[in-house]
Amino acid sequence: MHFAVLFVGCALFSTAFTLKCYECVPGADLTCTETQKTCPSSTQCAAMRVTSYAGGSKIVDVTAKSCATPAECLTGSMNFGISRTLLNSKCCTTELCNSQTVPESSSGTPNGKQCFTCNGQDCLTTLDCLGDENSCISTTTEVSGQKVSMKGCASRSFCAGSMSAQLPGISVKLDCCEGHLCNDAQSLAASLLLLVAPLLSVTLFH
Question: The domain that contains 181 carries what CATH number?
Answer without folding.
Answer: 2.10.60.10
